[in-house]
Amino acid sequence: MAAESANIGIYNVGTGKSYSINQMLEKVMDATGIHLEPRHVPTPIDNYVRHTLADTTKAKRELGFEAKITLDEGLRLMLSGRGAGLVRTPEGKLLN
């Protein structure tokens, strides 16, 4: 898809769902089987972003991007070592 496109630019990719830091921690702990007790401390950053959501509109419009797997599936694939085939350079080379 992107390897076949003449488009050059910055594109957001994501699942279209927003996750808090605590939710991400839960997902990583579930995927790894390692469970920790989080320690919450005040952030030293005044304008700290607590939730983010990638707007994939441009990637969908210009590249035809659409998430094919969930965040949970992606974490499992990356942790199993099978996630390298999910990312390619514009030339089509697999990143690992």
How would you describe this structure to a colleague?
The protein has one domain: UDP-galactose 4-epimerase, domain 1. A two-stranded antiparallel ribbon has the order 1-2. Helix 1 crosses helix 3. The chain has three helices and two strands; from the N terminus they run βαβαα. The protein has 96 residues and is mainly α. The longest helix has 12 residues. The model has no long low-confidence stretch (mean pLDDT 81).
Which structural traits does this protein have?
UDP-galactose 4-epimerase, domain 1; two-stranded antiparallel sheet; single chain; 96 residues; mainly alpha; 4% strand
**Nearest-angstrom radius of gyration?**
16 Å
On the 0 to 100 scale, the average pLDDT is 81
Question: What's the CATH first level?
Answer: Alpha Beta
Query: Which range best describes the helical content: under 10%, 10-25%, 25-40%, 40-55%, 55-70% or over 70%?
Result: 25-40%
Number of DSSP helices?
3
Order the strands across the largest sheet as they lie in space. Answer: 1-2
Gross geometry: extended
Supply the helix-strand structural class: mainly alpha
Low-confidence spans: none
Distance between the termini: 19 Å
Q: How big a fraction of the residues is strand?
A: under 5%
* Order of helix and strand elements from N to C terminus: EHEHH
How many domain units?
1
The CATH topology name reads UDP-galactose 4-epimerase, domain 1
The CATH architecture would be: Alpha-Beta Complex
Instruction: Please identify which CATH superfamily we are dealing with.
Output: UDP-galactose 4-epimerase, domain 1
| Number of beta strands | 2
Q: Give the biggest beta sheet.
A: 2 strands, antiparallel
